[in-house]
Amino acid sequence: MACDRSISPPPYRLTFSWVAGLSVQIFDEENYEGRVGESTVDCPSVENRFGMKDVLSSKVLSGSWMLCKGPNRDDGFKLAKPEYPCRKWDFRVKSLKCLMESVHQMTTKFIHLQP
């Protein structure tokens, strides 16, 4: 059987599958006690969103996160471990930032072709 070269494959486009998974929990007391806030996106004001004056413990559920000194800041404390039962940073936390390299790493793992 000969190959019919007049038939072309259907057009495909590159798409990204977003997998829910960027998540962090913050607590206003040590040892994961007190008020808890959970976020899956950047949070410009911990006080406005969660009613917290400061963050004293945290749990990174997935992704890479930074506790920041102010709103929309790029400086702060990168949460390198999954759990911080007590404060390891030397400032009052004002905001949360999801680090973009983690978003890039997650999305590039799930690239696929769709018709």
TrEMBL record:
Repeat among keywords: yes
Residue ranges annotated for the Beta/gamma crystallin 'Greek key' domain, each copy included: 23-99
Swiss-Prot/TrEMBL keywords: Repeat
Pfam families: Crystall
Protein name as it appears in the record: Beta/gamma crystallin 'Greek key' domain-containing protein
Organism: Onychostoma macrolepis
InterPro entries assigned to the protein according to its UniProt record, in alphabetical order: Beta/gamma_crystallin, G_crystallin-like
Assigned protein family: Belongs to the beta/gamma-crystallin family.
